[in-house]
Amino acid sequence: MQSATFTVASTVLEQAYKAIRTTPPEPKDLEQSAKLQTFMDEKFPTESAENITRRSLILAELRSIFRQWVKQVCMQKGVPEEMATDAGGQILVSGSYRLGVNEPGADIDTICVAPRHVTREDFFSSLKDIFLKHPKVSNLVAIEGAIVPLLTFDYEEINIDLQIAILPRNSIPENLNILDDHVLVGVDPATEKSLNGPRVTELMIKLTPNRESFISVLRIVRRWAKRRGLYSNKMGYLGGVNWCILVCFINQLYPTAAPSTLLLRFFMVLTNWKWPLAIQLCKTHDANLGLEVWNANAGHNRQVPSYQVMPILTPAYPSMNSSFNVSNHTLAVMKEEFKRALTMVQDVLSKGGSDWSSLFDPTDFFAVHQHYLAVEVYTEKQDEEPAWCSFCESRIRKLVESLAYNPALCRLRAFTKKFPLNFVTAGDASAGGQPNGDASTQPSKFGVCFYVGFDIDRRQLHSREVSIDNSVEYFKHNDLYRWNKRTPTMDVRITPIVWKSLPEEVFEDLGGRAIARVTRREFMKKKKEEDKLAAAPSPPPSGDEGMNDCLSQEMDGDKDVGGNDKAASLASDMANGKGSISQPGSPDPATEGSEVIKDTSSLHSTPLKAKKEAATVSPEMSGKRDRDGNAVVGTGSPEGKPLGTSNGVGNTSTNGAAAPGITSPPVKVVKKPLEMAAAPPAVASPRKRRKMKITFAKLN
């Protein structure tokens, strides 16, 4: 099957991955999709026609204000009135609003395109003043130091994110084609990134083979990601652009699939995707304009640092990684969520596809962690709150990375939702974290609170206390206090909190603290059982059956499967039946904690000294026997395996004595992680388990 090609402006784009299945959907798929659509309309209704019209009118007013401002700036700089009138100016729209998947109350991403006479300083001075004086504008914040500078404000209670792109031309025509790569000639980096938003959005619309299914599934995935705490590019997860590219990518692999089937394939592919293999909609191309293009093979390329673990490439030139904030910790969280969602979708479809509530259950973040950190970002001036809180939110992921250097901490996760301030003193936190209720003695502060959850890995403990002072202090002084816009009134308080001391508002999505407590007990019980199983000796593997399951049974009749140009790509694995996607319930080699090693030649070359020692061992030396009466080696067999049985590793004769010179047949060895092989069981006896204390003495 040939890869699809698309002509955009003067550039021919080739689809990066060939379609896997192009057969029409079956009646059952269409029926399940209709039920899914009905569920979404009832539970998560779209914006009303009245509000859609209202947004259109707001954009029209913004265009008028912007064009008048451009004319005013040009005339102030000596441009003749006629040329100033012709200077024009456009306001482009990108993101969810442009795609038609915006939810009620969602913001609008807008980009002002201005001619050369306008500067970014004009944007943050005179245009900012115009909006400050406008009666319909409120909560205006200027974010000048961001990678993409912008003004954010509420216009008739609709949030607007306004960026500016300055082109090196005297006028901006109405029919400006932003998909033409040459529109980027001579622009600065901020303009390049601002134009990237609408360029990517327009390209996704063109590269999507099935617009209706794409919109339906994108709407579902966005809602699912928000409910599960995965919708935040700042926090190291994925944002709107990332989810759009992923859904469009799956739509390319299954261009004729019904929405319910496309949703199933979405979670199936992402569950088994071999990161850091990049996901891209079209093959990258270089327009020779001097802009750096993402290239996985170029180690010197600054766009491909070693820590980019989940590359999702933008289709527009210059192609870049839209998910560079993702870390190993957030990727692990998303992998687990993809697995859970896949199980849920399979279960719902097996029952007819009527009730999809389980897929959208809120995250159990506040029920499954042993300890939490309250990161309270505050300032004493209300007008400083939005900028300071926005900056700190973009740095929370750095706190997680700093904490990860402590080997005693595991399952680190930052929560994406903001909560009100709930000050806790450092002294109380070390003893259990009781809130300080005397608010009258504290000065008035404005800010928000974020939460980070983590567990304690008892196998890495050397004492009853775990100190996180160094990690927190490093985060504060290297990632927060160096911000050039920070004032003395801006600060952050980081406090360890135990579960019972969490405020009530964090349990609202779960239905209250009582329901969260039940969820927590069930999780802890399940975790103890899993730890006991992990600590128990592993039985010898019975074979490779089930390890190479793929879509041959899941996708009966898939004959029109195309190969992939990349050796490690998912499309090739699925086409050739190499087990890139496992059946429900079968083990996944990419995610299992053990690895089967088939090459056991090193096990048969026993040192001469070891052979001699094995030859001198006899049942009489140990005097031990197992339940069946077989002699057990006391010395020389650390595992205490019975001699003369096929389960013991070594050379033995049938009467229990070692037989030197006889090699044992090849065996399969399970390679366990080093810490699991060398450490004691993860679950200690209740008598040995002691309450751990998180020390936090130096800070706050």
Q: In words, what does this structure look like?
A:
The protein has 700 residues and is of the alpha+beta class. Among the domains are: 46-207, Beta Polymerase, domain 2, CATH 3.30.460.10; 365-523, Poly(A) polymerase predicted RNA binding domain (Alpha-Beta Plaits, 2-Layer Sandwich); 601-669, no CATH class. It contains 21 helices and 17 strands. It has helices at residues 27-43, 49-76, 81-86, 95-99, 120-133, 189-207, 211-227, 240-253, 259-272, 328-350, 365-368, 385-393, 396-403, 426-430, 469-480, 513-535, 551-554, 570-576, 608-616, 619-622, 674-678, and strands spanning 5-8, 11-14, 90-94, 108-114, 137-143, 150-155, 158-166, 371-379, 409-414, 446-456, 465-467, 490-498, 595-597, 624-625, 631-632, 669-671, 693-695. Strands 3-4-7-6-5 form a five-stranded mixed β-sheet, with helices on both faces. α6 packs parallel to α8, α7 (211-227) packs across α8 and α9 packs antiparallel against α10 (328-350). The termini are far apart. Residues 299-306, 424-441 and 543-690 have low confidence and may be disordered. Its cofactor is Mn(2+); Mg(2+).
